[in-house]
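Side project, low priority. Logging it here so it doesn't get lost.
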Amino acid sequence: MKFLFLIASVVFLAGCQGIEPDATETPDDSSAGEVTPPDPEESENSLMIDVPYESYLKDSNPVVTMEVQGLGTMKLQLFPDVAPNSVNNMIKLVQEGYYDGLIFHRVIENFVIQGGWGELVGKPASTCTIAGEFNANGFENPLEHDRGVLSMARTSVMDSATSQFFIMHQKTASLDGQYAGFGGLIEGFDVLDAIATTATGFQDQPNENIVMERVTVELNGYVPSEPDCVN
């Protein structure tokens, strides 16, 4: 399945089928509706980290650890209160070892790093397709796509997310309300920068594979459920 982002006149492709929407289209943020982010004073977060999504961080949130070959480790806190099905989907895939050995196959500096396409390394495609948890799809999701935010990739079809995800290298407001943000980086911003600034070639694929050697999750008391699949 081919996954893409559409930012102004930039078409960001990631996948294996050919879906080509109008490259001049700009996402309509008017569909996002009015949402209220959480009150920072209500956050149960002991991390000393200055990020735009600090109010979403909780010690009880699950944490995904990605060990990136030759570059170091990234830790991402998942936000069940924001996008629970996206969180449950990633947890299931991590626990099954699906992401182990996968690569970051699309890298655009000052935009995103994207990974999770199993078929590139001979793994079967994810069998679960989930509905998009974002405002334009009728789901209230106030998380903005700031630097470090974790979000689900999809095709032009709103309910088409499977295993592919992306991490924001820099804030891109035109993604807000159009893609399902569901977590944020809490450690390893240097690794994010190293990946985002790597040399790339055709279709923004790194010239040398950037491999997720091992991906694990610590639940921290969160009890995941089976993801709700639309297929």
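Brief comment: Residues 57-218 form a domain with the Cyclophilin fold (CATH 2.40.100.10).
Revisit when time allows.
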